[in-house]
Specification:
By secondary structure, the protein is an all-alpha fold. It has one domain. Helix content is about 85%, strand content about 0%. It is built from 9 helices and no strands. The protein is elongated.
């Protein structure tokens, strides 16, 4: 009577104890198989982080430019503070929309993989293994999306800066500021992606094998 339970426990321990490199390989394979859904998640991250880095760079240009240069560029200096507040509200809204989109996409990914999750659990995969797999996927998607988003946002900000300030633009944004914008935006992209994946990943990890295998897709 105790042998099947002992075998299942041993199999579960073996799968959960897989090298971290193997779990990463399984997660990357899942991304490749569902490449279109992965691209939807990545595109949402790119847009949100591009908007964030663009706003931060543009704000840096404005803060470091003289009042005379701002007026020549057509920037309304009088109500500039109000404009900055409105812009940052828009950034927050864009990040929130991106977060909701990521949660929805990850939930759909879990739904599509009911049978896969059930099969893995029947083979002995523990909750921790499934949770790690989904979180690794989110880190990869978040890193790729944030990287492209940062590059796009900074490019757009500098492209606009050339038209507004001309050659003077190159001296308006110190390298240190640009580095902080890039790193901060990248971290923000990865964090919102991982946070958006936590709930779907936990739901997938807690799923009973019987329930997952009975799911009609």
């Amino acid at each position: 009577m105790g042998e099947p339970n002992a075998s299942a426990s041993a199999a579960g321990s073996e799968i959960d104890a897989l090298p971290f490199r193997k779990i990463i390989s399984i997660a990357l394979k899942g991304i490749r198989i569902r490449i279109w859904r992965s691209l939807i998640v990545v595109s949402g991250i790119i847009l949100a982080i591009a908007f964030l880095s663009y706003i931060l760079c543009s704000d840096g240009f404005i803060q470091n430019a003289s009042e005379e240069l701002l007026r020549k560029a057509g920037v309304e200096v009088d109500n500039m503070e109000d404009q900055r507040v409105q812009t940052y509200w828009m950034v927050g809204l864009a990040l929130l929309i991106s977060f909701v989109g990521i949660v929805n996409a990850m939930l759909m990914s879990v739904t599509e993989r009911f049978r896969e999750i059930g099969t893995m659990k029947c083979l002995g995969a523990l909750d921790g293994f499934v949770l790690k797999m989904f979180l690794i996927e989110s880190v990869v998607l978040g890193s790729v999306g944030a990287l492209f988003g940062v590059g796009l946002g900074i490019f757009l900000a500098y492209f606009e800066g050339v038209f507004l300030f001309g050659h003077a633009m190159w001296g308006l944004l110190p390298v240190g500021w640009l580095f902080l914008v890039a790193v901060g935006s990248f971290i923000a992209g990865v964090v919102i992606t991982v946070l958006g994946a936590v709930y779907p990943a936990r739901e997938a990890a807690k799923m009973l094998p019987v329930v997952a295998l009975r799911a009609e897709l």
